[in-house]
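Deliverable D5.2: sample structural annotation.
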Amino acid sequence: MSNIIEIKNLNAPELDVYARLTEVQLLNRQDPQNGLFIAESPKVIERALDAGYAPVSCLVEKKHIAAQAQPIISRCGEIPIYTAEFDVLTNLTGFQLTRGMLCAMRRAPLETMENLCANARRIAILENVMNPTNVGAIFRSAAALNIDAVLLTPACSNPLYRRAIRVSMGTVFQVPWTYICENAADWPEPTMHTLKNLGFKTAAMALNDQSISIKDPRLMAEEKLAILLGTEGEGLSGCTISNCDYTIRIPMSHGVDSLNVAAASAVAFWQLGNNN
């Protein structure tokens, strides 16, 4: 295949996307139409392709060209497929490739919150969740446990950062998501007002005297429910909690007062997700 290119020079500029550009540079906030992300492993790349993301190039361990990477390569048209042995690719990227394959892909324009919520019954809202591992884990739970969409505040880690994609096992391509707003001043009050106009009741996960159990039957009775999860450590802001219809908590034992935000999301989504 003419588009299979063996790597001869680790400093070649066409390899910058895999070796030298940061996540922020790939995101390219100044020119979002040309923003990129890196998908890792054939299964995750396949999910991205299924979701309509356009590949730009691939980086593939040589032994996988005619093996597990072959079905993906056949779907990618004539884009460049850069290849080398395992040790060379590890030296280039600084990490061991998961199942021997990376793919640089173009970002797609984000939907509006209104469009994402139009036909949704259960959504998750992440406030300032900054760890990409947590973001990826939350998306995996959202996909598995019937959450229709995920909304993020501007300070959240981007779901298309490589680590978030990897931890999510590509489910970031299956669950619709968008950023709530570009201006921090639009959160929480104006956005909460929009959600209520869209028919949603809001439930803040937080520990305070007003918290009710996530097993409270009033929650499951809500036709449309937004579940809000806060940043690592501090949780949701007081202003956000005060603007919600419910404050909810997970009943726990042995004196444990809280769970990691990703673990808490899985419990909440299981209990409150759109299972009916």
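Annotation notes: The two ends are 50 Å apart (CA to CA). DSSP finds twelve helices and twelve strands in the chain.
The annotation will be released with the project's public dataset once the embargo ends.
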